[in-house]
Amino acid sequence: MVSSPKKKSFSVQNISIEGNIGSGKTSFTNYFLNNPNIQVFPEPIDKWRNLCGHNLLDLYYADPVKWGFAFQMFVQKSLMDIIYKPTKCPYKIIERSIYSAKYTFVENMHNKKTINDVEYLVYSEWFDFCSKVLPLKIDLIIYIRTDPIICYHRIKERGRIEETMISLDLLNELHELHESWLIKKYFTDFDIPVLVLDGNQSNKFMEKHASQVMKDMFENIIIHKHLSNNCDRSPLKQLYGNCSKFYDF
């Protein structure tokens, strides 16, 4: 009896959209919603607003010292859920990842003593387990690089109730941490390729950014169909390499 050939499976490519609060991540992510090859997972804010009836996001902004550790632990768990959520699409776009939670928000909270040393160590132990022990796979980071003052004005314009306490100082702090992480490569054990986009631009220009990224990915889908299953490199790493790239239109 002749066995039928095995159907080749593809490895889902996980793309994380990163940037400051108000940098334009959600707007940029929305450009991919109607692409049949991409499944989009927005930042799970609704989960943070309703944990069995508790608005953790509001509690955190109202009293970050009391609720900061609990909030960030839940953020880490909810972002891990997205990574492991199955999809039939070859690409999964995720708004934020556990990396930005750790390298920007939690680092900033620890620097400002919003979380204490013990809480920071407990969080870091869980982060190391999630990022180094579990099969966590992020193939590409798209960094929406936006000036803090522009982020501040966008936050005021969108008017989320929980964000009324966000200051320009906080946005400056988070911006510097994003720069240290994704531009200056402060964390030397972090080797995910980073694509840098200018988030200060208008929606029209950001749409061009998205169109170019989709074009690259679509071409890569065709190329990937011809790749050997024995290839151990991510197709997105083959496409972008390990160097930052900047789209300037």
Structure notes:
The chain has 249 residues and is α/β, with parallel strands linked by helices. The protein has one domain (7-23, 46-190, 235-249): P-loop containing nucleotide triphosphate hydrolases (Rossmann fold, 3-Layer(aba) Sandwich), CATH 3.40.50. The chain is built from ten helices and six strands; from the N terminus they run βαβαααβααβααβααβ. It has helices spanning 25-30, 45-49, 56-62, 64-84, 98-111, 117-133, 148-158, 168-183, 203-224, 235-240; strands spanning 13-19, 38-41, 91-95, 140-145, 194-198, 245-247. The chain has a six-stranded parallel beta sheet with strand order 2-3-1-4-5-6. The radius of gyration is 19 Å and the shape is globular. The model is unreliable at 1-9 and 222-232 (pLDDT under 50).
Secondary structure: elements and pairs:
Elements: E1 13-19, H1 25-30, E2 38-41, H2 45-49, H3 56-62, H4 64-84, E3 91-95, H5 98-111, H6 117-133, E4 140-145, H7 148-158, H8 168-183, E5 194-198, H9 203-224, H10 235-240, E6 245-247
Parallel strand pairs: 1-3, 1-4, 2-3, 4-5, 5-6
Helix pairs in contact: 3-4, 4-5, 4-6, 5-6, 5-8, 7-8
| Rg over CA atoms | 19 Å
* Quaternary organization: single chain
Return the CATH topology: Rossmann fold
Overall domain count: 1
Main β-sheet, spatial strand arrangement: 2-3-1-4-5-6
What form results from the Cα inertia axes? globular
Instruction: Provide the CATH architecture.
Output: 3-Layer(aba) Sandwich
Helical percent range? 40-55%
**What is the highest CATH level, the class?**
Alpha Beta
Biggest β-sheet strands, sense, barrel:
6 strands, parallel
Strand content: 5-15%
SS content category? alpha/beta
- Total E-strand runs: 6
- Helix/strand order, N-terminal first: EHEHHHEHHEHHEHHE
Task: Name the CATH homologous superfamily.
Answer: P-loop containing nucleotide triphosphate hydrolases
What is the CA-CA span between the terminal residues? 58 Å
* SS element count, helices: 10
Q: Give the integer mean of the pLDDT values.
A: 83
